[in-house]
Amino acid sequence: MTRLTLIDAQTAGISGDMLLGALIDAGADVNTIQRALNLIPSHFTRCRRIRLAAVEVKRHGFRACRAELTIDEEAEETKAEELIRVTREITTSSNLSGKAKAFANNTVRTLTEVESRLHGVEVSSAHLHEAGSADTLADIIGTAAGCDSLNLFEREIYSCPVAIGGGTVSFSHGTLSVPAPAVLEIARRHRMPILGGPVNVELATPTGVSILASLVDKFVEAPPPLVPDMVGYGAGNRELASAPNVLRVVMGESVGGPFERDSVQVVETNIDDASGEVVGASMQRILDAGAKDVWVTPAQFKKSRPGYVLHAVCGRDDLQKISRVMMRETGTLGVRYQDWDRFILQREVVVIKLEVGNAIFDVRIKVARDQFGEVIRIKPEFEDVDMISRATSLPAREISALALEQARKKLGKKTGA
Fold it and tell me: Model confidence over 254-305: pLDDT tens digits?
């Protein structure tokens, strides 16, 4: 079974200290985290002392862990370059794993690059305000140490859509609508799904979403099937009016078969007034727009008119685009869509060297594996097979067989294709 972690921020959003609290509640060692935090004053000179306390609190009657940081620092502006340098020095001098160090540095770089873009300056010229404090470093370094303590970097990490809250937020540049510009930009860059509400306060902080962007392997609409064995609840610093201000982290083992699972959108429309040429051209345009698949089903409609049902499969992010192309190309007045869950194999393309006669050619091989890494299917790319066939005057089926045999030797697969 695959070890999974799910970060559930769809009710109360996310901040760095909420995630840190959830990790501690799930079993992360506080002393290990504190040792990593102790490195901050040695490299970030404006910070003199930092202490972590794990406090049990209640939010709407539910217990949770509040990661309370006591920081003694001078209030002054920090340059983005300094925060990047300090993070690198801290991680280099720490006992964090390689993946934890990479996570911390990537998170700080995400945060500083977004801030510099929003202010229209290079990272080398960017000045940080709220994001340039020791608290930001503590959240990131503490999360890295907490994840290391729980071996989370050796798991697949998923996240539900992130609640951002509502209303307005006030910071050094004035008052703006929620989400804060940095939160919105990070979500845009990393294709992070966000949800408004459920209350009119800021729920997702720039540090929290930058941590999430660097940590998560996949964002999902619904939790993947898993058997939970550890659950942690991290509390925010305020009580919300209508929901517990709690971030939940769930760890466990995946269940089901050997196949990866995902969700797609299926878009379709009825066509009874277009020629076969128009339908064929529409299929190609839909594929060019990013659809995963497209097909036509013959049908008979009212008044016994023959026609087609045009279907397309796409990701949620492409739903509007594919629908627009389908309506534009076919002239249909509307489309319908639905969610389909599916099992899929993990796919990759490898390149092999194929010797034919006195010449050597590159052939792309499409390889499909299950979640355990077993090769289920191998298929040479036909465009490469056709090119070699034309160059050597040998039948394409012979080239395909040669490529398949060579690919099996390379991949260690003895049976099946």
Answer: 876 677 778 899 999 999 999 999 999 999 999 999 999 999 999 999 988 9
Class of domain 346-411 (CATH, top level): alpha beta
Q: Model-level pTM?
A: 0.69
Question: CA–CA separation, 267 vs 337, rounded Å?
Answer: 4
With beta carbons less than 8 A apart as the criterion, state whether 294 and 311 touch: yes
- CA 40 distance to own-chain centroid: 29
What is the Cα–Cα distance from 286 to 308, expressed in whole angstroms?
16
- Burial class for 93, CB neighbours closer than 10 Å (0-12, 13-18, 19+): exposed
Please provide the DSSP assignment of 320-388 as one string: HHHHHHHHHHH--S--EEEEEEEEE-EEEEEEEEEEETTEEEEEEEEEEE-TT--EEEEEE-HHHHHHH
Half-sphere exposure of 161 (CA within 13 A, CB side): 11
* Number of other residues whose CB lies within 10 A of the CB of residue 59: 19
DSSP state at residue 179: S
Q: Record the tokens describing residue 24, joined without a space.
A: 């501690």
From the list 150, 36, 38, 155, the residue with the least C-alpha distance to 101 is: 36
Partners of residue 232 on adjacent β-strands: 249
Interval 37-78: pLDDT, tens? 999 999 998 999 999 999 999 999 999 999 999 999 988 778
CA distance 97 to 22: 20
Q: What residues of the chain score a pLDDT lower than 70?
A: 1, 129-130, 172-173, 256-257, 372, 413-417
Which CATH code for domain 260-344?
A: 3.30.70.1380
> Which three-class secondary structure state does DSSP give residue 223?
coil
User: Where are the strands (E) in 81-150, listed by range?
Assistant: 127-128
Sheet with 375-380, strands from edge to edge, namely 346-356, 359-369, 375-380
Q: Is the dihedral of CA 340, 344, 349, 354 positive or negative?
A: negative
Count, residues in the chain: 417
C-beta atoms surrounding 283 within 10 Å? 20
Residue 70 phi, psi (nearest 5): -105, 115
Beta strand pairing call for 78-79 and 127-128? antiparallel
CB 311 within 8 A of CB 299: no
Question: Which two structure tokens, joined as six digits, stand for 66?
Answer: 């509040």
DSSP-assigned letter for residue 258: S
The full set of domain ranges for the chain reads 3-254, 260-344, 346-411
State CA 238 to chain mean position distance: 28
